[in-house]
Amino acid sequence: MRTRIKICGITRVEDAADAVRLGADAIGLVFYPASPRAVSLQQAKTIVESLPPFVTVVGLFVDQDRDTIERYIHEVQIDLLQFHGDESAHECSRYARPWIKAIRMREGIDLAEIARAYGRAAGLLLDSYKAGVPGGTGQCFDWGRIPATLASRIILAGGLDPQNVAQAIKQVHPYAVDVSGGVERSKGVKDAAKIEAFIAGVKRGDN
User: Fold this and answer.
1) Which Enzyme Commission numbers does its entry carry (predicted)?
2) Domains in the chain: ranges and CATH
């Protein structure tokens, strides 16, 4: 089975178009205001309305209140929710959408225990840990810490780029990979050539 690809931190219609044209399965829209890749409701709607069918739209939230999340869900056609903060499984399950939970790979974390706690999640997105930063660090973590038994539930993130994604896939065999900074020209502005190289790297990893 091929590795699925999510391009996160999309802020422009043209970047969404490039991602889809080049083979991405999903795009990520960041609704966390403190992020340099955050989009407004209007930006998000414009991007989503430009997409062709069968592209998954993922909305990223970080410890935001229920009313805020429900407003985004109501206003924007979001297919999958991504919770990137300290949300409990109960909090993640409140909405009429499938969801994934981002886990920052701090030292000593027990992934098997977390997988049980978030058993209703569609998947676990594994990201690098940096104190005070909920994601987008641009740093890798030790992929050897991921139990092989969980690979089919894993969306691998954290410092992936066109140069290392093939090796990451060969080692981890994740369900999907997630990239943001690794395919950017500047924060929030994607580079089509880097997206193309990243997707080529994913294909090499699958072979």
Assistant:
1) 5.3.1.24
2) 4-206 (3.20.20.70)
